[in-house]
Amino acid sequence: MRPISYSRVSDVGTAIGTVAADPTSAFLAGGTNQVDLLRIYVEQPRRLVDINDLPLKQVEELPGGGLRLGGLARMSDVAEHPTVRRRYPMVSESLVLGASPQLRHMASVAGNLMQRTRCTYFRDTEVACNKRSPGTGCSAMEGVNRGHAVLGTSECCIATHPSDLGVALMALDAVVQTESPAGQRSIPIDDFYLLPGKTPEREHPLSHGELVTGIDLPPLPVAAHSRYIKIRDRESYEFALAAVAVAMSVVDGRITEIRLALGGVATKPWRARAAEAALDGAPATTDSFTRAAEAELATAVPHGMNAFKIELAKRTIVRALTEMTQREGSA
Amino acid sequence: MKSQQAVQTTPTPDSAVVRGPDEVEVRLRVNGENRRMSIEPRVSLLDALRDRLDLHGTKKGCNQGACGACTVWVDRRRVLACLTLAISCENREITTIEGLADGDALHPMQEAFLDLDAFQCGYCTPGQIMSAVALLTEGHAGDDDEIKEWMSGNLCRCAAYPHIRAAIRRVRDEQGGDRAAH
């Protein structure tokens, strides 16, 4: 790790003012991804501004029925929060199925959204990577890419976005609250994540010094009937090969409301809009689920070793919808 | 949904106190004692504990947050010392394996690990024990499946997992079940 200087701040204004004024600085929250990236020289700020004392750890009711997760609320606290578990079970499940208990105590939900890909080539400063060093090329295209994305890729980058929480937030149409010296902004979650395109180094529409202060979950009754299913190489403490966040309402055998998002297979948390369109109003049957899965993965692009993810994603969608239907039916 | 319209605020420009990058005095409270050391801000809590405070119980395994050997408590929550900067722990309460026993009396979890042979090489053991005690506080040791899931952040290359779970079950049952360890 390069030498760094350190500041600890206790209010949002000082935090964003300090980072915005110093291009070589970065916020430090839970540090679980950042300290690792500092140690392997992938991120090289000269100064860390520790924001852990900022008053952004609360989970609060919003007027109108939504819920605000403070940016610095820890993954473990949000996962265990009774209101989150009752009204947004997929959010709680996506958190509990991520990382380990120790890391969940450390990592903030804002940091979870901002975490970087675990692509091994991104993490290896000896090799080409367009995301880490723009213009150098993508080593994953012809490399060991079993874990890489099949949706949302570009000729520049096929790195998978690692967040589980982001997938649940995408299904919910969550809104990211930020603050910078220019003021406060509300950014819909789908706009908060950028596709790699020709600029894979740019992952969020944030300015330097712009801080994620909170995440708003909208009032959404169907979210109480939701879950997060994660398929991986081992059953715990592992990133997704394929994951599905689903909220669904079935009335008289027909799907009356559906929200579906995918993780582990795309360059950003992936809203499965094609699948949603196929499912909306359709009978809640395996045939419908299979057609929806086919529709969503129709544009998938394999890169050799990760070709299996296309079928795996389809099966995970069908399984998630089947299990939701059975649970709704027995409820 | 709120609009995208920016609301003007007046942040204080770069007024934060800068420490480092050279060595600075850092004060930590470890196992109930106040400790001072001169370290660079980049030093991890793990290295500060082992190299500056001679508390070698906390182990360095992967040094990248994958193995759990460095598990300690910060403000009584289990965390990974390798991914924590020591300087960020000022004004926090740090507990390591050395702080678990009550004088010469081992913590019940330490006793259980000894009695039930819950280790072979022992390298992961301090992290396992710090995690196991915290697990009971957190209330996720209801059955073996739950223990497996909530201990998954602590790897054991000797695969002593069945005995580790037995030790956790014993302390859980002795202390009146889940959530009753403290």
Automatic annotation (TrEMBL), chain A:
This is Xanthine dehydrogenase family protein subunit M. PROSITE patterns: FAD_PCMH (PS51387). The lineage of its organism: Bacteria, Bacillati, Actinomycetota, Actinomycetes, Micromonosporales. Keywords: Oxidoreductase. The keyword Ion transport does not apply. Residues 1-222 form the FAD-binding PCMH-type domain. Gene3D superfamilies: 3.30.465.10, CO dehydrogenase flavoprotein, C-terminal domain (3.30.390.50), Uridine Diphospho-n-acetylenolpyruvylglucosamine Reductase, domain 2 (3.30.43.10). It comes from the Bacteria. GO terms for molecular function: FAD binding; oxidoreductase activity.
